[in-house]
Amino acid sequence: MIDRCASCGSLHDWKSGLLVCRCGATNGPRVCIEGDPAFSRYVLGRLSLCHPTLVPVLDGMALDEAVRTAELLGASRLPWSPVKPKRTYADEVTDRLQGLRLALDWPAGLLKSLDELVAGYDLRPAQGLIAAYGWVYSEMCMGDVSQATSGLVAGVVREHAVRSGIIARDEDRLGGDVPETMTAKTAAKCLGYGYERTRRTLEQAGAIPTGSRRGVAFALDPSAVGRLSRREQSVPPSALLSIGRTQARKLLRDEGLRAAIRPDAGDQASALVGIISSLAMPGDRQANVPLSAACRNMSVPLAAACRGIIEGNVRVRLKGSEAGLRAVLVRQADLAPLRKPRDRMTVEAIARQSGLHHDAVRSLVRCGAFGEAERGQVAATAVRRFLDEHVTAAELSRDRNTSSTAIRRTLEKMGVVPAFGPPECRQLIYRRCDLPTIH
What we know:
Blueprint: H1 28-31, H2 37-46, H3 56-59, H4 63-75, H5 89-104, H6 108-117, H7 129-133, H8 135-138, H9 147-163, E1 182-183, H10 184-191, H11 195-205, E2 219-220, H12 222-231, H13 237-241, H14 245-253, H15 255-260, H16 268-278, E3 289-290, H17 291-298, H18 302-310, E4 316-318, E5 328-330, E6 344-345, H19 347-354, H20 358-366, E7 378-379, H21 380-389, E8 390-392, H22 393-400, H23 404-413, E9 429-431
């Protein structure tokens, strides 16, 4: 496109259209031979002003997206940089032409540019996609570009990174189709080792994919980890259960679970996993929370949850990519009845349960009516005992369909003194044992 007529030299106002100037000269044929003919011809072809140039990877985009994408592709040939280098107008013209050439040779042209870009990758101390591709990754694949641009480039960059050993093929990056895999942390639990020993064992077995990096949760083949686990001798119970050692000891010492395991079962950990796995209900999509997470969320001990599964009160299903108890998924709501009742109550909880005013409850807590308070909370058993032994004047008045003042005067005449009352406590509270029978 040009902004002045090639015949009369006047500035175009485009009121007479794209093809004809006000002087009557034709613009279209001249534009095709002005400046950069290749990209100009592509733009004019998109505007139906000349015979179109077919560029399949750009033709599906809007014209402004195609122009911007061509500029970015052309700039990708520049040396590595963490941010996109500043480009002048003349540079952008060159970038568009280079980008058009890469688009016509897609994806081989971009792959060749990426080969040149990462030529010095091994010499850099940092590793990863940003260290390898710089702004080409951060801006063209993940930055503020159109979805069409990122969708076009990201797949090629990911395939190049996998082929170059920059990332692992099963690493979840740039929309890769990642199969069902296992992390190194999960593998450590399956093997019953610490992370460093697990890493060394996996490296010796060749089970770590090429391109896996420290600091990134690289993916492992569950079947390879399973074969390695079977090959290791004397696998500890914590590995069979896929939980921590201390937790495994507590679980296997639980009397209820030991009673559910047959006496002739050789390995208690394997027997427990087998019993729970046999109770899995296939197709139960509501059982979708890992057992350990559900126990943590609902404040239920793991042993209590396992007893609930064996007793049929907690429904489960299995996740095929995990091992031991990590494979067990449950309905979190099924664990609610297994929660232990809380032995501590706050002022608000006591007020809701007893009907006392919260200021009166605070006064009772301060004077030690509920026993010793810890961080503003008192024992629930002490609260229940207090409520069983005391009654408020308001409650007596409701029971006898009279006023609190009448109750107080009647009890004063009988010589009954409230156990708690103003000014220390805003409500009148009597001991039930002090009350005579009032008709």
